[in-house]
Design brief:
This protein is an alpha/beta fold.
Amino acid sequence: MKPLIGIIGSMDYSKNRLFLNKAHLEKVLNVGGIPAVFSADSSPDEVLEHVDGILLIEGPDIHPHFYGEDPSGVLKYVDVARDEFEICLVKKAVENGVPILGIGRGMQVINVALGGTLYQDVSTEIPKAIKHDWDLHLMGPTQRVHGVRIKTSSRLYEILKEELNIEGTSDVFLRVNSFHHQAIKRVGEGIKPVAYAVDGLIEAIEGEEGFIVGVQWQAEYLPEMERLFEAFVLAAAEYRAKKLDMEMREIEAKVREGLSESHRSSETSSNPPDTSQM
């Protein structure tokens, strides 16, 4: 059976509807996964009981309360319920070894969940930063607005290397469709930065263990990024296989235990106590 990929949708509170970009569903389906959409009203434990991988996608700003700061005047709209749900989900997924892919906001959620912090607004906190806050609605999501350099020592490079323009021994260059006004400041525990914009801002992270990858750009619109989705769904399939194997071992152990108890009970009933001396 194909791995089930849990995707957390965005909430439009004005219309009481849950939505997400169809491109995410198409990418997961194209590489052999089955997408399942959840809302922030779901239980993280119940979600993780059923899915084999977690895909965190774009959305509103993460409230700075979750990394120990008060909101600045440049903060845009937030969804605190979604923040709480996704942060809890990431923590539990990491504990259980569930593969995670974060895109845009999703990368930032991974970082905050693991103890990292964010720049609430790149343009005001880093005066020398290049432009990151492009208007996606006016430009369209496929435009490659700036470049990033990816470390060749990274898992991300190994996944994408057949698609990359190699320019050096330690980094490779790629132009991406990265649209954001928040960015990673301090990296969380157990993850490391593996791609940077020219101004030094972190554009991709990955876990030191397991499959945890986050990219700031909209990977679902770039053809070469299908390899990233392939690697993610493959990791989810491997996780599913291990989970099923463990469940089967537990069932077999219970069956053996039941047979052993039945055998002991049978031996006891077939050898009644000697009462002739009583």
